[in-house]
Write a structure and sequence with these properties.
This protein is of the alpha/beta class and 459 residues long. It has 15 helices and 16 strands.
C-alpha cells in the first residue's frame, strides 16, 4: 500500500510566528517525482498565437487595395475617388459653428474626465430630442452613444446575434458588416440589390434567405456604395418582410438626411410600429467630421419586443470601453442646435452638382453604365466587360485605370459585387472633371466592339 502524500513546510514562517510562508510549501508524492522536479523537466518555449477572432477578421477593401501591385502614372497627378472621407481635399470643411462648439467644450474644462459608458445623459437627451417625432418617439433611455457609427453597428450585431446565427446584409454593400460579423462567428447572407431599379432590394431573394438562425436584417439607406435612397413604399415593403418573418432590423442610417433636392429621406423607424429597429447614425458624414468619432444607436421598440434585455445588453457591451469622446459630447448640444440650415443645403447642393456632372460624363462613355445616385457621397458605375476583353474583372479594370491614368476608384468586388466600380463624389469640381476626362481616355483606348455588334460600333 502506497504512503499518502506528505506536506513539508520549511523555513521560519511568514513572519507572524503562526503560519508557514506560502513560497516554502512543497508537496511530495510517495513513489512519484516531486512537482518541482517535473517543472524542471519541462522545456519552456514560446507559443503565442493570434486569437480565433483576429484570424476571422477580414476587410475586403483592405485586402483588395493592399494587394494591388500597380503604381500610379508618375506623369499624371493622382486623383483618388476611392476614400469615403469628405474632408480629404479640404473643399468641404465643417461649419464654423461646429468647430466653435468643440473649442468651447474644450475651453470649459468640464469634459476632460471619464463619462458614462453609454454617454452623458444630457447628450443622449439632445439626440433623443433631435430625432424625436410623433411616429417614432424617443427618450434618453432609447439612445446609446458610441465611438463612431462603426461601433454602433458592432454593438448592434453583438447584442442581436450569437456565433452560429446569421445576419442578412446587402450586396453590393459596406464591407464592415461582414468584417464585424464574421469576426464574432456570425454568418453573413447577402441579399441582392437591383441596379436596374436604382438599387432597390430584391425582396423575394431577401425573404428566401431567412431561416431559423437569422438574427437580424441590415438595411443601409441611403446607401454606401450605391448612393441610392429608398422610397417610402419600398421601405414599407421591407418592413412587411421583417414583420412577416419576425426579424429585427439594424438600420445603418449614417447618411440619413444626406439626400438630394429631388428626393426624400424617410427614417425606417418612422414607418414601423411593429418591427423593432436599432438605428445607427453619427456626426461623421452629415456634419463632415468623421474623425471626431461620435455615433449613436436609437432603440425603436414600441411593441416592447426587445424588452429590457436588449437594452441591458447594449449597456453591458458599451461598458467594454469607457464610452465615446467626452469633448465631442460636450459640444453636441451646440452642434445640433446651432449648425445653420444653409450648411446642410450647401453641402447637398455641391454633392448633387458633382453627382450630376459625373453621371452625365460617364454615361456618355461607351462601355460604362453609371447608376444615377440620389444621396450619400457615391455612385456606382457598371463596366460592360465584353467591351474590355483584356480585363478579366473589375479589379483588373481599376488597377489598369490607376496605372495609366492615376485615377483610383474602388472595384465593386470590395462590396461583394462584380463588374462595377465606385466613385466618391466629394472631390472638388475641377478634379471631378479631370477624373472623368481621364476615365474617358482610358475607356477609348481599351474599348473593343463586342462580337456581332460591329454595326453598332460604326454608329
Amino acid at each position: 500500500m502506497m504512503d499518502p502524500y506528505v506536506i513539508q513546510m520549511n523555513g521560519n514562517g511568514n513572519g507572524n510566528g503562526n503560519l508557514p510562508s506560502v513560497r516554502d510549501v512543497h508537496v511530495n508524492f510517495s513513489g512519484r517525482s516531486s512537482v518541482s522536479e517535473k517543472m524542471k523537466s519541462r522545456k519552456a518555449r514560446w507559443c503565442v498565437r493570434p486569437s480565433d477572432m483576429s484570424n476571422k477578421t477580414f476587410n475586403p477593401i483592405r485586402a483588395i487595395v493592399d494587394s494591388m501591385k500597380v503604381k500610379p502614372n508618375p506623369n499624371k497627378t493622382m486623383i483618388s475617388l476611392s476614400i469615403g472621407d469628405p474632408t480629404v481635399f479640404g473643399n468641404l470643411p465643417a461649419d464654423p459653428e461646429v468647430t466653435q462648439a468643440m473649442k468651447d467644450a474644450l475651453d470649459s474644462g468640464k469634459y476632460n474626465g471619464y463619462g458614462p459608458a453609454i454617454g452623458y445623459l444630457a447628450s443622449r437627451e439632445e439626440i433623443a430630442s433631435y430625432y424625436h417625432c410623433p411616429e417614432a418617439p424617443l427618450e434618453a433611455k432609447d439612445v446609446i452613444l458610441t465611438s463612431g457609427c462603426s461601433q454602433a453597428v458592432e454593438l448592434c450585431l453583438a447584442v442581436l446575434a450569437n456565433p452560429g446565427q446569421n445576419i442578412l446584409a446587402p450586396r453590393p454593400g459596406f464591407s464592415l458588416y461582414r468584417t464585424l460579423a464574421e469576426s464574432m462567428g456570425i454568418e453573413v447572407k447577402l441579399y441582392n440589390l437591383l441596379p436596374e431599379k436604382s438599387w432597390e432590394i430584391d425582396l423575394k431573394h431577401l425573404e428566401s434567405l431567412i431561416d431559423e438562425k437569422t438574427a437580424c436584417l441590415v438595411v443601409n439607406n441611403p446607401s454606401n456604395p450605391c448612393g441610392s435612397v429608398f422610397s417610402k413604399s419600398h421601405l414599407q415593403k421591407i418592413l412587411e418582410v421583417a414583420a412577416r418573418q419576425c426579424v429585427p432590423i439594424l438600420a445603418d442610417e449614417i447618411y440619413g438626411d444626406m439626400v438630394f433636392a429631388d428626393c426624400k429621406y424617410e427614417p425606417l423607424a418612422n414607418l414601423s410600429n411593429n418591427v423593432p429597429i436599432l438605428s445607427c447614425g453619427g456626426l461623421a458624414k452629415r456634419w463632415l467630421v468623421p474623425g471626431w468619432r461620435l455615433g449613436w444607436i436609437l432603440i425603436h421598440d414600441r411593441r416592447d419586443i426587445f424588452g429590457s434585455e436588449i437594452r441591458a445588453g447594449l449597456v453591458k457591451l458599451s461598458q467594454r470601453i469607457l464610452g465615446p469622446c467626452t469633448i465631442v459630447q460636450g459640444a453636441l448640444k451646440s452642434i445640433l442646435r446651432r449648425t445653420p440650415p444653409e450648411f446642410y443645403h450647401n453641402t447637398l447642393s455641391f454633392l448633387k452638382s458633382n453627382a450630376d456632372l459625373c453621371y452625365g460624363a460617364l454615361a456618355a462613355i461607351p462601355g460604362l453604365r453609371p447608376v444615377r445616385p440620389f444621396g450619400a457621397m457615391y455612385l456606382m458605375v457598371g463596366i460592360e466587360m465584353e467591351h474590355f476583353p483584356e480585363f478579366e474583372n473589375d479589379v483588373e479594370f481599376t488597377e489598369k485605370l490607376l496605372a495609366e491614368q492615376s485615377v483610383h476608384c474602388l472595384p465593386s468586388t470590395c462590396f461583394e459585387y462584380m463588374n462595377f466600380f465606385r466613385v466618391v463624389i466629394t472631390v472638388p469640381e475641377v478634379m471631378m472633371l479631370e477624373a472623368c476626362s481621364r476615365i474617358q481616355e482610358f475607356c477609348e483606348q481599351h474599348y473593343h466592339c463586342a462580337e456581332g455588334s460591329q454595326e453598332e460600333c460604326d454608329k
